[in-house]
Amino acid sequence: MYQHIRVPDAQRITVAPDLSLNVPDNPILPFIEGDGTGADITPVMIKVVDAAVAKAYGGRRKIAWMEIYAGEKATRVYGPDVWLPEETMQALKEFVVSIKGPLTTPVGGGIRSLNVALRQELDLYVCLRPVRYFQGVPSPVKAPEKVDMVIFRENSEDIYAGIEWAAESDGAKKIIDFLIREMGVRKIRFPATSGIGIKPVSREGTERLVRRAIQYAIDNNRKSVTLVHKGNIMKYTEGGFRDWGYALAQSEFGAQPIDGGPWCRFKNPKTGQDIVVKDSIADAFLQQILLRPAEYDVIATLNLNGDYISDALAAQVGGIGIAPGANLSDTVAMFEATHGTAPKYAGKDYVNPGSEILSAEMMLRHMGWFEAADLIVSSMEKAIQSKQVTYDFARLMPGATQVSCSGFGDVMIAQMEM
Ligand SMILES: NC(=O)C1=CN([C@@H]2O[C@H](COP(=O)(O)OP(=O)(O)OC[C@H]3O[C@@H](n4cnc5c(N)ncnc54)[C@H](OP(=O)(O)O)[C@@H]3O)[C@@H](O)[C@H]2O)C=CC1
Ligand SMILES: O=C(O)CCC(=O)C(=O)O
Ligand SMILES: [Mg+2]
């Protein structure tokens, strides 16, 4: 039934009625190689994951990798204009858990982001990006170990919805005309030459994201959830996010206002510890995480803020070369690095595969394969401590030996044997 996808002779991961996963010992896992450096890092990720699974389970468990296509490789397999084949979407839904390399999005004209399209079409409304420090990683800040945050970035709404019209297009003219004539808008400074973008942010979208962030704080014994927004300026979108987030903390988790609010607090039902729900305006937040990172823990924010914050925080702990991520719906999960295709390094076996490998580590944990996930973390720590690292770390680490992308994977695998 698939045209170009070769389905391995192995078992599917399925979702139980209570939304838990049934993971067989030989699960089929779809992967998208990715554009640019995707072709460098994806094979390394697969090799490291296979080694960790083999070591952890002694052959009892094994992943059956299944290549599916998106981006430039899809145009080579399916035809010049097919960037995101229908059967890729079908496989991502059918096989439930998957991993992808980065995909190119041109600036200005050209195709819209395939990454955003995948998230929207699969309703992967949570972009989960944990940011933690690995001992020994070179960092531009004095105390990078104080950064231990988990970003819940809303993935389905906001300005990312892609509802926009180019300046001077019929669409832009129509919308501007409507705003001026029917809505009495007088504040578009240059109406004849303005591009127009729409920023939808809903109560339902906010609630499902904030609910997941608070539940994560409960399950992982975290101290606080910070709602990050620019609600002083964008009152009904970003401000709505803040207000709906607080309201949900109170109505669903029993949070009580602290000193009259708006901050509020409730007891973690699993541990009895306080969890504080607070908020921060995005610009101030960006300086706070640099100056006082220990005060922040779980972060819930909108799509664009989350995009900026995830790269900024990653920089504090060594850069996007080791910043992992996951895109989650209530059933489907697609794991991917935080960084992009880094085209200038494509095909050079040069970049850090750490971000993609740690995304796979999150995937193994999601599947309940904790022993293999733990092995990946420990071998990453040991590889960094051995100072055999890719260029991004080597250039900032005195006494380091620079290794290639695949070389770093081999160092990790060698550490698993020790
Ligand atoms: N989820 C996705 O698929 C994403 C896709 N993109 C797309 O990727 C393309 C390129 O975007 P761009 O803005 O250049 O961002 P990139 O994340 O691709 O690269 C920016 C810089 O980050 C560093 N970097 C990136 N990846 C690695 C790595 N694996 N190891 C070490 N350092 C790394 C490099 O820094 P240095 O030069 O200092 O070495 C690189 O020049 C665009 O088309 C964009 O749309 C962007 C983000 C996410
Ligand atoms: O889709 C893109 O090209 C960029 C996406 C991005 O920056 C991200 O997911 O963090
Ligand atoms: Mg980004």
From TrEMBL:
GO molecular function, one term: NAD binding
SMART domains in the record: Iso_dh (SM01329)
Enzyme class: oxidoreductase
Site (described: Critical for catalysis): Y160, K230
BP GO annotations: glyoxylate cycle; tricarboxylic acid cycle
Cofactor notes: Binds 1 Mg(2+) or Mn(2+) ion per subunit.
Keywords: Glyoxylate bypass, Magnesium, Manganese, Metal-binding, NADP, Oxidoreductase, Tricarboxylic acid cycle
Residues binding Mg(2+): D307
Reaction(s) the record says it catalyses: D-threo-isocitrate + NADP(+) = 2-oxoglutarate + CO2 + NADPH
Residues modified as N6-acetyllysine: K142
Modification sites for Phosphoserine: S113
Positions of NADP(+) binding: T104, H339, G340, T341, A342, P343, K344, Y345, N352, Y391, R395
Positions with a binding annotation for D-threo-isocitrate: S113, N115, R119, R129, R153
Residues modified to N6-succinyllysine: K100
Cofactor(s) annotated in UniProt: Mn(2+); Mg(2+)
Family affiliation: Belongs to the isocitrate and isopropylmalate dehydrogenases family.
Subunit details: Homodimer.
PANTHER family per record: ISOCITRATE DEHYDROGENASE [NADP] (PTHR43504:SF1)
Name of this protein: Isocitrate dehydrogenase [NADP]
Species assigned in the record: Thiomonas delicata
